[in-house]
Amino acid sequence: MTDMDDFTLKLTNELRVSPLYNELKSKAKELVCRTSGDVSQLKMNIHEGLAKSGWKRSLQNEVYCRLLERVDAASQNRVHIKEPLAYIRRAQASWEKRILKSLNSMCTEMSVPLARKRPIPEQKEIRSNWNELGVDEPDLSLFRPVYGPKDFLDMLTLLKNPNLASEQLCNFWGLLKLPFPVKSLQQLRQEFCEMTPRWSQVGVDGGSHTDIFDAESVGLGQKVMAADNIALCQQYSRRGIPPSLRMQLWLQNVGLRITDSDRLRYDQLKMHVFKHDLLVDKLIYKDVKLTATNDDQYFVFEDFIHQVLLLFSRDTEVLKHFARSSATPPKSYIRGMLGVSDYAVVYPPNGIIPFHGFSMYVAPLCFVFEDPVTLYYFFREIYTRHFFRLHTISSHPQGIVSLSVLFESLLQACQPQLFYHLRQMGAQPLRIAFKWLMRAFSGYLASDQLLLLWDRVLAYNSLEPLAVLAVAIFAYRRVNLLETSSYAAVEAVMADTTTIRVIPLLQAILLTEH
């Protein structure tokens, strides 16, 4: 049996247990009941009926998504599905122990349980205040974030390839001295060639032809929506998405359809929130207050963000992404059964301990989705596709380590004088850019510009535009940065990036010879 035969068999078996299979089967039964012609034509009639009703396209989109996952896995040539490099696996395991130790220490110091069942009056109170969660302000002054971008970066700087001789480390100018293979500037230019000024871009064009282009873009986008083809949608999205079509095309881009069972599951997750209080609820609440609520763009979405993250913390479907992640979900033990594996449970139920700034993954989506159910499921989808890679240690090309190495490599190639100047004064560029990368620039750009950036992330199915944009911002501020003489001065120059226009800067890096 060939690899493709094996994959086809595996894919068929996976589809047989998917919700889509049951929906297709139900529709086929309807078609059989309505068919009164020749029995010999039954199979052909069912095929034609499924095609006319759009179910054939839904099946094709599902297969396309599975093929993309296979290509991604095959490109890694992985011996270990989760992580091929032993020293990276050890580093991730060490980091997880450190996070769990911090969480348990907080529990012990404050005499707060990891989880408890809410009393009936408290259940009624949170149910009645579900749409006003931001109004209640409990005293969380003693609670602290388990970790933040600075802590994570400090951990990454300790990474060292044991096969790399110490004298070879002097060849690395950057903060991360890892020989990870990353794309060159020329390779990135080829990959992101649709960003060339030869093609009009949503969010960048001005002048008299803007209205004409906007109308054409909306008209073409509507045709793409009608076609319901994920590959076509991704190709269209590479030049940006008009705001009026962003919700529908983002959903189509990831193949997300909200069903009645999804809405039922959403209500079940709400019931879990009402019945049980988790320690991570306090961390979520404090993070929302420290980040989104303090942001002029996102404070109005405080309740939505809080709802999404409370549901997310209890959603065990999120655990499936660990099959593709270098991380392992943390576990706790039922009281009195410490160390007994049979009484170990994943905590929190989704396996994700939020860090400082985690809520900013949700905040920008509130501009796109007004239905809380759709908002929740899209966030879960984009997190389990992309964002989980931004806070786990792995050698994956889309992981935060590779993105950091790519950033340092590109900046050295594009702006060697600037990189050397900052390095000499002890202001390594990655120390400034890392928080941008880890939060996918959420909170650091104007919301309209951030959504244009995330358009490209979804269209190219890649997080590499984040690293390219980080380089572009340094290049844009080059003159001022070269005049600095201290790390504090560099921070001051790079403090405000909300005036940045994303697409022109990306074009400047990708299309200019340096």
Shape: globular
Structural class: mainly alpha
Low-confidence stretches: 76-80
Please identify the oligomeric state: single chain
**N- to C-terminal distance:** 50 Å
Mean pLDDT level: 86
Report the C-alpha radius of gyration, rounded. 25 Å
Strand order in the largest sheet: 1-2
Helix content: 55-70%
How do the SSEs run, as a string of H and E?
HHHHHEHHHHHHHEHHEEHHHHHHHHH
Count the DSSP helices: 23
Overview of the structural elements:
By secondary structure, the chain is mostly helical. Helices cover 55% and strands 2% of the residues. It has 23 helices and 4 strands. Strands 1-2 form a two-stranded antiparallel sheet. It has a two-stranded antiparallel sheet with strand order 3-4. Helix 13 runs antiparallel to helix 14 and helix 16 crosses helix 18. The longest helix has 25 residues. It is globular. About 1% of the residues have low confidence.
Concise synopsis of the structure shown:
This protein has 514 residues and is an all-alpha fold. Helix content is 55%, strand content 2%. The chain contains 23 helices and four strands.
Features:
two-stranded antiparallel sheet; 514 residues
Question: What secondary-structure arrangement, pairings included, does this model have?
Answer:
Elements: H1 3-16, H2 19-34, H3 42-52, H4 55-76, H5 86-110, E1 115-117, H6 120-128, H7 149-156, H8 185-191, H9 210-227, H10 230-237, H11 246-253, H12 260-275, E2 276-278, H13 279-290, H14 302-313, E3 331-333, E4 344-346, H15 372-385, H16 400-414, H17 416-424, H18 429-438, H19 447-460, H20 464-476, H21 478-482, H22 487-493, H23 502-511
Helix pairs in contact: 2-3, 10-19, 13-14, 14-15, 16-17, 16-18, 16-20, 18-20, 20-23
